[in-house]
Amino acid sequence: MDVRVVEHPLALARLTTMRDARTDNAAFRAALRDLTLLLVVEATRGFGTATFPIHTPVARTEGHRLANPPILVPVLRAGLGMVDAAQSLLPEAQVGFVGMARDEETHLPTPYMESLPPTLVGRPVFVLDPMLATGGSMVHTVELLTARGADDVTAVCVLAAPEGVRALADSGLPVRLVTGSIDERLNDSAYIVPGLGDAGDRQFGAV
Ligand code: URA
């Protein structure tokens, strides 16, 4: 599996803000937004462009646009905080949704919502989920996508645990990973260590 860790200095700085337990919800959301921009830049590197004629104020020239923009699929709820940034770089992108709850005892993903186009054949997909922990939710989400014909899926994650990276690689699914960091490990509660805590609670408050 292709794994890219974005080690840009600005990504490291935003990640530090997100990790810091003193960061409040608003500052956490702002750092997540900035970091998502950097992750999406990396995720779209190498995408093909289509050309079309434009006029500058001075001359005629060729313009470029993405030939096949990805569909964005945030995993609810923590992935919601990545949508706005991804859309600002990809204004033409369609957005689907997958709702995945985590059973706090078994740590297994429980899907509760799926809103996706009927077919994803020939369409790149970016799954937006800040945390790749056990990999269970991500594997399950990518299976939902491949069941609709997707064969070019990118998991865009702020942080990953080695266990999650392994689960995704071992799944044999057509997926690659773009992340800000691969951390040390999972703890007994399946939280990423050192991590940043619960990415949903850090954005929206514990409810
Ligand atoms: N989900 C989170 O929000 N945080 C973790 O550390 C693991 C899963």
UniProtKB/TrEMBL annotation:
Stated name of the protein? Uracil phosphoribosyltransferase
**GO terms for CC?**
cytoplasm
Briefly state the protein's biological role: Catalyzes the conversion of uracil and 5-phospho-alpha-D-ribose 1-diphosphate (PRPP) to UMP and diphosphate.
Q: Which organism is it from?
A: Pseudonocardia oroxyli
Question: Which family, according to the similarity comment?
Answer: Belongs to the UPRTase family.
Tell me its EC number(s), please.
2.4.2.9
Cite the Phosphoribosyltransferase domain residue spans from the record: 5-205
Query: Any one Gene Ontology biological process term?
Result: uracil salvage
According to the UniProt record, what class of enzyme is this?
transferase
Reaction(s) this enzyme catalyzes, per UniProt: UMP + diphosphate = 5-phospho-alpha-D-ribose 1-diphosphate + uracil
**Entry's PANTHER family?**
ADENINE PHOSPHORIBOSYLTRANSFERASE, URACIL PHOSPHORIBOSYLTRANSFERASE, CHLOROPLASTIC
Return the Gene3D superfamilies for the record.
Answer: 3.40.50.2020
Q: Which residues cross the membrane?
A: none
Q: Which GO terms describe its molecular function?
A: GTP binding; uracil phosphoribosyltransferase activity
Co-factor(s): Mg(2+)
Q: Which keywords appear in this protein's UniProt record, sorted alphabetically?
A: Allosteric enzyme, Glycosyltransferase, GTP-binding, Nucleotide-binding, Transferase
